[in-house]
Write a structure and sequence with these properties.
about 240 residues, Jelly Rolls, mainly beta, seven-stranded antiparallel sheet, about 10% helix
Length: about 240
């Protein structure tokens, strides 16, 4: 029995060292909404997962977010797992700000997530400059003085410097199953990975509109009944 205890203690010590070396800190306890703010009509904890859901009798009038209350991360890495229903539309916002007049609404960068797997991984600025990089794109974003800064739901002053095959990237994402989202956000470079594969890479040189820090949150988007789940949400400051 003593040998088993010592072996267990050694395993725990090694695990603790690995976690410290890794640098990631869990920001969701898997049991409660402690540390988060949301409309509980649409958000709950179930089976250890953070669940956002629209039901036929509780439709949304505007996009709603569950917002982390632990600070405003600037340079960081975020890792989490997500699963979304076929009709789902969601995303993870970061370096965002509250949108005045709409409860639990955020304005800012978003790593898109959708159940039809058309946009997952792209960089979309919620209530702002719209699309900054479609899936597979590496882009340079600059300010614009034009009278029509947004066209076809994309920021016109975005230069695509590299583009990968979107169909091949789509195959990386598992529909209606668990996937890992990894955000690497440092200075003005914003990288979105899904299942270890780079999906979009933005360098934001728009000093007028870019944000260097802000709120973190997950979205339930206006639309038909849907369900999105998150788990193992971990954050590391850079």
């Amino acid at each position: 029995m003593r040998i088993r205890f010592l072996a267990f203690a050694l395993l725990m010590a090694v695990t603790a060292i690995a976690q410290k070396k890794d640098g990631f800190v869990s920001i969701f306890d898997g049991k409660t909404l402690t540390g988060w703010e949301c409309d509980t009509t649409y958000w709950r904890v179930e089976n250890g997962n953070l669940v956002g859901e629209i039901t036929p009798d509780k439709l949304l009038k505007s996009n709603t977010f569950i917002i982390w209350k632990g600070g405003e991360p600037a340079d960081f890495e975020l890792k989490l797992q997500f699963k979304i229903s076929k009709n789902g539309n969601s995303g993870v916002n970061y370096r965002s700000m509250l949108f005045e007049g709409v409860p639990f609404a955020l304005k800012g960068y978003q790593a898109d997530i959708d159940g039809m797997n058309r946009y997952t991984g792209q960089n979309y600025e919620e209530r702002g400059r719209t699309t900054l990089a479609y899936r597979g794109q590496t882009t340079l974003v600059s300010a614009t003085s034009g009278t029509e800064p947004i066209k076809n739901n994309a920021w016109v002053s975005t230069k695509v410097v590299k583009e990968l095959n979107r169909d091949s990237l789509q195959q990386v994402i598992k529909p209606e199953d668990w996937n890992e989202l990894h955000l690497v956000i440092k200075a003005n470079r914003l990288q979105h990975y899904v299942n270890g594969v780079l999906m979009s890479d933005v360098t934001d040189n728009d000093s007028v509109n870019r944000k260097d820090k802000g709120l973190l949150g997950m979205q339930v988007h206006v639309g038909p009944p849907m369900k999105v789940e998150f788990r193992d949400i971990r954050l590391k400051a850079l």
